[in-house]
Amino acid sequence: MNRIAVYPGSFDPITMGHVDIINRVSPLYSEIVILVAQSSQKQSMFDAQERKELIEKSLSHLKNVRVDFFEGLTVDYMKKNKAQVIIRGLRAVVDFEYELTMAQINKKIAPEIETLLMFASPEFYYISSRGVKELAVNGGDLKGFVPDVVKEAIIKKLKK
């Protein structure tokens, strides 16, 4: 059976926490779709195409992962693409409350779709895209926070 999971998010930028979760969930499904959210309301460091390319480079070692874009409800994308599971990463209790609410909303509007909540590994528990951007803007070392290709892209972006 072709089991498709979707990991939605802004991934601005993809962090080692995201990579950790994707590495761990990849063996469980036939295909993992990293769904890059496109929102005109959010100020992003990287545009959607740049994020897609950084994700593809960061995950090139995983053959069952692809990256796609979508604006709208994740469950609508999933129905259209015959996906069964939404993957969401958790770092803290605050994440849990938000993700539980979203999972219940999704279950109400699409009962056939499940949500899998995965805890970040302890060594990545504290990493967030927002924190990475703040660290970068203030000249902090990004080693261990993001894949090397992302670190290089952030440095290049900030020099502009």
Can you characterise this structure?
This protein is α/β, with parallel strands linked by helices and 160 residues long. Helix content is 41%, strand content 19%. Strands 3-2-1-4-5 form a five-stranded parallel beta sheet, with helices on both faces. Strand 2, helix 2 and strand 3 (65-70) form a beta-alpha-beta unit. The chain starts with a strand and ends with a helix.
Topology:
Layout lengths: L3 E6 L6 H10 L5 E7 L10 H11 L6 E6 L3 H7 L4 E6 L2 H17 L4 E6 L9 H9 L10 H12 L1
What is the number of strand segments?
5
Shape field: globular
The topology string of helices and strands comes to EHEHEHEHEHH
Radius of gyration: 15 Å
β-strand percent reads 15-25%
- Intertermini distance: 47 Å
Biggest sheet character: 5 strands, parallel
**Number of helices, counting only DSSP H or I runs of 4 residues or more:** 6
Averaged pLDDT, please? 94
Helical/strand content category = alpha/beta
Proportion of residues in helical segments: 40-55%
- Trace the largest sheet across and list its strands: 3-2-1-4-5
Low-confidence spans: none
Core attributes:
6 helices; alpha/beta; 19% strand; 160 residues; 5-stranded parallel sheet; globular
